[in-house]
Amino acid sequence: MRAIEEARHSIDVRVYIFDVDDYALRIADLLKQRSAAVPVRVLVDDMATLVAGAVGPLRPRGLAGERPPGSIESYLRRDSQVQVRRGRIRGSPATTPRR
């Protein structure tokens, strides 16, 4: 998190799974906050993030009754300048051929 907090020019993140659990949402909140000061770009793997979002977090976020967001992508874009793109990340298990 320190690298995100101290970025001066831009923040580029490439992730295989960007879930909607407590920790992931803390990172997302920090990225959203920093997007007011520097360009923030996030590339998420198509398959892994789709599956993680369908399964949902292991435990709910925040106060009792508060539901986690349905999509990390829409959460990152909401009220921020974060640019989110989906794609296949080379070398990820979802895109690496089995032999």
Helix count equals: 4
* Span of the ends, CA to CA: 37 Å
**Radius of gyration, in angstroms, nearest whole number:** 14 Å
Strand order of the largest sheet: 1-2-3
Detailed description of the structure:
The chain is of the alpha/beta class and 99 residues long. 34% of the residues lie in helices and 16% in strands. A three-stranded parallel sheet has the order 1-2-3. The longest helix has 13 residues, at 22-34.
Output the keywords.
single chain, 99 residues, alpha/beta, 4 helices, 34% helix, disordered C terminus
Topology:
Elements: H1 2-6, E1 11-15, H2 22-34, E2 40-45, H3 46-55, H4 72-77, E3 83-87
Parallel strand pairs: 1-2, 2-3
Give a concise summary.
This protein is an alpha/beta fold and 99 residues long. The chain has helices at 2-6, 22-34, 46-55, 72-77, and strands spanning 11-15, 40-45, 83-87.
